[in-house]
Amino acid sequence: MSRPILFYDGDCGFCSSAVQFILDHETSESFLFAPLQGELAAQELPGVLVKDLNTVVVKHQNVIYTKSQAIFFVARYLKKPYHFMHFGKYIPKAFSNQMYDIVAKNRYSLSKVSKTCKIPSENERKRFIH
């Protein structure tokens, strides 16, 4: 697959909101999306990554980006001003991953309970792989 695949915790509201944010703010239809709990993740990722639902993973051209590095990779494909977050890749990885881990650990409490759920368009649905 030529497009990057973003693997995320499919049971996490915060993670699903992040995916929706990407859909709403990407410059073009750059990404495919797949839950870490799905068959594609089991086929494409090392087992340790599939089991760690606290880690967002991007796979692109056989390179795997995790945690903050995955976020910075995604940011390159977002519209301004979010695009500039990709410069975070120059922050020491140990520090940026520590910040990522704090958010990941608290992601369920950070999730807003929504009474509505955006239904993806037909075109958006084609970009989700299970």
TrEMBL record:
GO terms for molecular function: protein-disulfide reductase activity. This is Thiol-disulfide oxidoreductase. It comes from the Bacteria. It holds the Pfam family DCC1-like. It comes from Candidatus Kurthia intestinigallinarum.
